[in-house]
Amino acid sequence: MQAIDASKTPKKAALASFMGSAVEYYDFFVFGSAAALIFPHVFFPDDDASALVMSFATFGFAYVARPFGAVILGHFGDRVGRQKVLMFTLVLMGLSTFLIGCLPSFDAIGWAAPVLLVLCRLMQGLSAAGEQAGASSLTLEHAPDDRRSFFTSWTLTGTQGGQILAALVFIPVVSLPDDIKYSWGWRIPFWFSALVVIVAFFIRRSLHEPPEFAAKKASGDVARIPLLDLLQHHWADVLRVICCAFIAAISTVFGNLAIAYGKEVGVDESITLWLVVAANVVALGTQPLFGMLADRIGRKPVFVYGALSSAVLMPFYLLSMSQDNELLIFALAVLTFSCGYAAANAVWPSFYAEMFDARVRFSGLAIGTQLGFLMAGFAPTIVTALGGVEEGGWTVTAGFTAVIAIVASIAALTARETKDVPTAELGAKPSRDRADEALAGR
Q1: For position 429, what pLDDT does the model report?
Q2: CA–CA distance, 226 with 20 (Å, rounded to integer)
Q3: How far apart are CA 350 and CA 373, in angstroms?
Q4: Distance of alpha carbon 52 from alpha carbon 255, whole angstroms
Q5: pLDDT class for 323, splitting at 50, 70, 90?
Q6: Counting Cβ atoms within 10 Å, is residue 14 exposed (0-12), middle (13-18) or buried (19+)?
Q7: Who's near 308: CB < 8 A, 6+ residues apart?
Q8: Contact 284, 403 (CB under 8 A)
């Protein structure tokens, strides 16, 4: 077991990443729940049959903004510092979420209402573009070599905490009478985000930059334009991360589409939200375990298991919603998400980040994931348009899940296994290194 450098603070970094991700994704998942249950009635004509599709489209708009945010925030994260960018993303997410809770309805200002909603959603997307990449980079660079996957798994475990909190806050909202729920009741979860942001702000601001990055910055060994460095030396890894990141669509299928499908086949709205809570509570325990497993046997086998098991279990989970057996629904929800998808979810922060060196890690991770996450963002719109939330539409959703899981698994299998590679050597390109040494020896 390698000794931990006294200047590193892996536990503190993991906690800060957990809290920051929880805040960011509380805000993000509150929007997702509202898009499925509230926004079709508030921001669109209530008698429009396509209101749900348009509502899910607003959910997807954040994913359009995220690649642009990834380039911008990745650039500053690799040049200025991980911690500074993470403070910015935290404040931006909190502000945009609070503003959503203040927006007037369609009945008040017409089509200007969904336009303002989309603008706020774009701000959320810009913020989220840098959150997971920055938190994963910072935590990985603070962690000891032999426990990188475990510590970085807490970044994504924070997203589960955020989703749990979002669902718990929304459960009493959906139980309100319609006249309250669709007027001011739905706004409370969005306003509540301001309090959560303040707590996370004070936790995160005391965290220092990772020693490896700080040393590179002090010596001037930072990429002048990280995007160009990525395109020149890491384009294959960026493409690999994009394809692997398709796996995130399983989360939106589970957390958003399944809610809408369950409502269609007769499952009570509050039950569908409790399914999300239960699965994510169990994932709080399973994801760190999957991170530990990846430190022992490797990132690739754990990631591929998570992807393929999700595809196998998803149709059974969706079918259970038509069986009038709540215990069965909850059991399959936990199996699909907490024991299947959670494996890939826990491992990807280390798996993707270890493909890049410290000079471009933030940018590579941010750009690759955000381009891949476009699939997750528009999964609800695509599957809903194909009939996936209609009765019997489980076949469409299950088929969609299987395709993205297979694509992600194939991409993962082409990657280098990095569990035994020292942090300082991550992202090294042998041919490039030999060329540099040859030039230096002249």
Answers
A1: 61
A2: 24
A3: 17
A4: 15
A5: confident
A6: buried
A7: 405, 406, 409
A8: no
CA distance 161 to 168: 11
Tokens of 381: 């719109």
5 in any annotated domain: no
Rounded Cα distance, 2 and 8, in Å: 13
**Greatest pairwise CA separation for the chain in angstroms:** 78
Can you say how many angstroms the Cα of residue 377 is from the centroid of all Cα atoms in its chain? 10
CA distances for 331 relative to 187, 247, 252, angstroms: 32, 22, 19
Measure Cα distances from 36 to 53, 56, 170, 239 in Å. 9, 7, 12, 31
| Residue 365 within a domain | yes
pLDDT tens per residue, range 299-321: 999 999 999 999 999 999 988 88
CB atoms within 10 A of CB 168: 15
Amino acid 431: pLDDT? 45
Which stretches of 320-436 are assigned E, i.e. beta strand? none
CB distance 120 to 99 below 8 Å: yes
Q: Helices (H), strands (E): how many in the chain? A: 21, 0
Mean pLDDT, the chain, whole residue set: 84
pLDDT at 438 over 60: no
List, in order, residues 6 or more apart from 132 with CB less than 8 Å away.
Answer: 21, 155, 156, 159, 349, 365, 369
Query: Would residue 160 count as lying in a domain?
Result: yes
Answer yes or no: are the C-beta atoms of 241 and 352 closer than 8 Å. yes
CA 37 from chain centre, in angstroms, equals 21
Residue range of the domain that includes 94: 10-212+225-430
* DSSP letters spanning 94-120: HHHHHHHTT---HHHHTTHHHHHHHHH
Task: Answer whether residue 295 is part of any domain.
Answer: yes
What per-residue confidence (pLDDT) applies to 309? 95
Which residues, in sequence order, are CB contacts of 226 under 8 Å at separation 6+?
Answer: 74, 75, 78, 79, 359, 360, 362, 363, 364
> Which CATH number goes with the domain that contains 171?
1.20.1250.20
Amino acid at 177: P
Alpha carbon distance 226, 425 (integer Å): 18
**pTM metric for this prediction:** 0.81
The total domain count for the chain is 1
Which amino acid, one-letter code, is at 161?
G
- Whether 73 and 130 have beta carbons less than 8 Å apart is answered as yes
